[in-house]
Amino acid sequence: MTIGKRIKECRIKKGMSVEELAQKLDKNRATVYRYEKGEIENLPTTILESLAKALDTTPAYIMGWRDFDIIEKNGEKIISRKQEEREEISDFLNPIFAEIGFNIAPHTYYSHGSLADMKFIVHSLDHGESSYFDYEEIKEIKENILMYTKFIINEKMLKTK
User: Fold this and answer.
1) I want to staple 38 with a disulfide (CB 3.0 to 4.6 A). Which of 4, 18, 94, 147 is the partner?
2) pTM check: above 0.70
3) What does each C-alpha distance from 80 to 73, 103, 145, 160 come to in angstroms?
4) In whole angstroms, how far apart are CA 95 and each of 15, 89, 144, 145?
């Protein structure tokens, strides 16, 4: 996802108009549209920090340095949207994985007391071994399961006509 798409995604999820974001940044609407279209990607640190604060996210998320979003609420750092999405994927895949002898769970890495990365850990129930998978790898597995299921159902429906 591009910087502009992240900015737009955060703005929309926050329910904020372009005009409102422009006012918070002390910029005009055209500048915000240019940020969202990716016409301005080399954001000065001051703008990046202002954007992150206005959108309740972090500069690291906006810049794409992390694929998850950390927000601060009442002085507490919270893993936002991506964590919820990982838990939904895990809840979807766990019964399927259990049928073939695996367990899956979101896993958060910390480095020097700070959130560093988020992955999935897949554990073999038969062999006791575990491996880490990136978000994109697990998302692809879920999409393939759904596509294959849809294919089988469509094939069955065509045969019954």
Assistant:
1) 4
2) no
3) 11, 23, 26, 45
4) 35, 11, 16, 13
